[in-house]
Amino acid sequence: MSSVIIAEKPSVAKNIADALNIKNRKDGYFEGDSYIVTWAFGHLLQLLDSKDYDEKMAVWEMKNFPFIPKEFKYKVKSEQNNKDVVDSGALKQIELIKSLIASNCVESVISACDYDREGQIIGDIILDYLDVKKPVYRLLLNEWTEKEVLKGLKNLKSNEEMKSLKDAGISRQWADWTIGINLTSVATLKYKIGKGGPLNIGRVLLPTLKIIYDRDQEIKNFKPDIYYKLKADFEVDDKRNYEAFYYMNKEDKFKDNEKLKEDVKLMKKSVAYISDKKTENKKEYPSYLFNLSNLQGYVTSKYKNFTSDKVLKVAQDLYEKKYITYPRTSSFVLEESLVEKTKRVLNALCKNFKYKDQIKFIKSKRIFDNSKVESHSAIVPTYVIPKNLNKDEQIIYESIKNRFLMQFMPIAEHEETRIITKFKDENIKGEFITKGKIELVKGWKKIENIKTKEVMLPNIKLNEDSKLLSTKITKKSTNPPKYHNEKTLLRLMETCGKKVLGDSKENTDEIMNNILKGFSIGTPATRADTIKKLKTAGYITTNKKSLTCTEKGNRLVENFPIKELFDLEYTGKLEKTLSDIEKNKFKREEFLDFIYNFTKNSVEKIKKEKRILISKEDKDGHEIEVIGKCPDCNSDIIEGKMGYGCSNYVEGCKFTLWKNDKFLASFGIKLTKEMVEELLKNKRLKMVNVKSKKGNLFNAYFKYLKDENEQRYSWKLEFLK
């Protein structure tokens, strides 16, 4: 009897077949004596479209929303470029999987999809769709090397034990479908004109957009503060010179320039001396192992041709080729059970390593700590040494390998000297501080040749007198914050908007705590795709590495009425709830009921709101020009093929100025865009040397006025002398 193993992708299926020494490859699967290994192509199935449930949903009409199916159903996925055509490859593969499982020689099924909530539902949805009655087991692996595959097959879990992971994945999928289908549809109907794409609304999309918007506004509204700094040059008796900066109450920025000048006058009359000198040896630890967000941030900030989406794709390829562990992780450390395995990997990587004599394996809490691992350990290399990597793969692999090796190199050390110079005049309250730094041990910095900026100080003794040579007061101003890039954006998505800077142990612990609590925007697997969708939707744009909102993105944040979707705290709580479902601390049904009610209320709120144009694009994605404001409803007037009309026509506003207006044509006048702009702005259009029907010339104001009784507009003339 055999078991059918379903892998997530063909490359993973081959890794499993290789580990089992199965050589017999057939069309869509590998066949061995005890195992038949087949695969999906990621998602073979997708949720039904709204029109699949009800024909009337084929055309978007406001009255048909909200729309929430009584029961969510699945179908074989559509072709990427044609949603109305079934993907023939996916259909063929699903039928093959069905026939393999139905075979009399097969007694059980093993789901070998990725060990996360998305991987869980890829397998489970297939099994549910095929209504599989045979026992189902789960192969849970962090890498696809031969040793791990064989070990995993000996330690299978019943798939029933993974129910909470499935519930979390299903909840995420159904929630995003419900919010996305309903709010994208009604928002597009309400706030969009033109032939551009729909106004994309999403649970993770909008709070991410809000982060970028907020930073843009900080920069736009930034008002610099002026401050002053005082630098001085000193000399001790035998021409030993050094420079120092003036501090008072641990602050070296001063608002009062005049007070600084007074202090300088006193300094020139007083005697300086070395009041304190401290020299310490300080240790510098390497940054923690990579999780996905940090890997994406590191690579995108260092290499021009990488986006976070590209980093994930390359890392996924390396994972499927058995060169690295599972990349979609939020953890910075490894599970403690991986100590011996890590030692073997280290030995394998060190064989041709330039600094192998300095490598020393250590079991440290900075590397191994169960309390800080969320589902998957940090990304590290496997014992399989890669060959023939392309340029992009080389960059990602070397980054991961180097970060791993750094953990076992000597700790970098430097000597830090701090000298304080004071004046004997007690009226001078501040002090001058000088800092020096000398590298003692390069340690782990050798791997990527990281330079330490050294500052050499002369040999100065405590209480030694010092002569003031010169002073310089510099006027400076505070700088605005920098625009977000993918690195800073990913960090804020990971911490749900909480500002955490640097890679120090303290800051990294704060990030870990947020992750472990489940508060975040999206998951490691989805964040890169979210940034990509924001670009595709036209909400943000890139300038070199900077991310900024487009006008369309600004209008969406400022005018879309469902403010909860921009709220980072609200989004974080939703993600936290999904995390709790995964841990069996919250019920799927309760979460989905909340999402359905939220969606219904949001749709009704949008219906009641005043129509404001957020998306106004032609078929080529260019912004449609607004000519003026409608005199009836104050909405935007835009140009159409036949005339200039109110963009609020969806809500029933009928204000229109026809290009070939018969009344104007009787005077030989054809309405232009510039004439409409003047008319809307001044409520009248001045025309000179107009020829009447009798051939006489006249000057007049043309007014387009509404007859309140007939509720229609007509032209009126006010003649000028």
Description of the structure:
The protein is of the alpha+beta class and 721 residues long. The protein folds into 5 domains: 154 residues, Rossmann fold (3-Layer(aba) Sandwich), CATH 3.40.50.140; 177 residues, Topoisomerase I, domain 2, CATH 1.10.460.10; 126 residues, Topoisomerase I, domain 3 (Distorted Sandwich); 115 residues, Topoisomerase I, domain 4 (Orthogonal Bundle); 95 residues, no CATH class. The protein is 35% helix and 23% strand. The chain contains 20 helices and 28 strands. The chain has a 7-stranded mixed β-sheet with strand order 2-3-4-1-9-10-11. Strands 13-14-17-16-15-18 form a 6-stranded antiparallel beta barrel. A hairpin with a 7-residue loop joins strand 16 and strand 17. The radius of gyration is 34 Å and the shape is flat. The model has no long low-confidence stretch (mean pLDDT 92).
